[in-house]
Design brief:
By secondary structure, this protein is α/β, with parallel strands linked by helices. It contains 5 helices and 5 strands, in the order βαβαβαβαβα. A 5-stranded parallel beta sheet has the order 2-1-3-4-5, sandwiched between helices.
Length: 123
């Protein structure tokens, strides 16, 4: 099962990748939204972990783009961000995000939350 991560901090992306790979997921990291959008034209993962605050295309814009695209709208998206205001959380959940996790976070908690979204229909 595959997961894409869009995170502009190389250290954070590495931490997330290491944890999720250690529990058996195939993980690809993208450092910006434009790179992610280009890749989504060719491959759709089972889950996307998306930072909100990034240069260029921010996570909220990417989320709205994904949910408006018929080919992508069923992609499960978990927001992972330092923004912890209720307004930001509600905006992302209302736009279609499955979950909203604030930084700092526990890698074990992230893996546990991801697991619930990675169940295949035939399981």
């Amino acid at each position: 099962m595959s997961i894409f991560i869009c995170e502009d901090s190389p250290e954070m992306a590495k931490l997330i990748c290491l944890k999720l790979k250690s529990v058996g997921y195939q993980v690809q990291a993208f450092s910006d939204g434009e790179e992610l959008i280009r890749r989504l034209k060719f491959e759709i993962p089972d889950l996307l972990i998306l930072d909100v605050m990034m240069p260029g295309l921010d996570g909220k814009t990417i989320l709205k783009f994904i949910k408006a695209d018929p080919a992508l709208k069923h992609l499960k998206v978990v927001m992972l961000t330092a923004l912890s205001k209720e307004k930001d959380i509600v905006e992302c959940l209302d736009a279609g995000a499955e979950d909203y996790i604030t930084k700092p976070f526990s890698p074990a908690e992230l893996a546990s939350r991801v697991k619930k979204y990675m169940v295949r229909a035939d399981d």
